[in-house]
Design a protein that fits this description.
By secondary structure, the protein is mainly alpha-helical. The chain has a domain of 99 residues: Helix Hairpins. 81% of the residues lie in helices and 0% in strands. Helix 3 packs antiparallel against helix 4. The N and C termini lie far apart (74 Å).
């Protein structure tokens, strides 16, 4: 029989939450499995990943400062993160309620809207960084 820590004992709660290196390795493995599951089963994730793979090198070679490059790459990674969450939400809704339901549609639409907003964020960030009045155009044209 396993002795569970008392709920009101904060010391035992902290002790039970300590992670070992084995837990860390397992977490990384689960993350990699999730990444490959999304790649295998989600066409929209593959498209977003291709988009990021094509634009990250461009962000790196553009003559902008390191902060601008980091923002441009972060905006691309944000799309991937939100797409993963959107896909997870869609899968769990389909698992829990395979029949059509107005609330399930609303949930899926909201998750899809989050992906859309992450794309708008990416467009805004890249536009600001590459705006003609920015020094990028002067550097590219000289």
């Amino acid at each position: 029989m396993v002795n569970l820590p008392a709920v009101d004992d904060p010391v035992e709660q902290v002790e039970s939450k300590r992670r070992s290196f084995r837990n860390f390795v397992a977490s990384v493995r689960y993350s990699v499995d999730g990444f490959f599951a999304a790649f295998q089963h989600e066409p929209s994730f593959r498209e977003d990943l291709l988009f990021a793979i094509l634009l990250v090198p461009l962000a790196i070679i553009l003559p902008v400062n390191a902060v601008s490059t980091a923002l441009m790459i972060a905006s691309l990674i944000l799309i991937l993160i939100v797409e993963l969450l959107n896909s997870a939400i869609e899968w769990i809704i389909d698992y829990l309620r395979p029949e059509r339901h107005p609330l399930a549609k609303r949930i899926k639409d909201m998750a899809s809207a989050a992906v859309f907003l992450s794309y708008i964020n990416c467009i805004v960030v890249w536009t600001i960084m590459l705006w003609p009045s920015n020094a990028v155009w002067r550097r590219l044209l000289t």
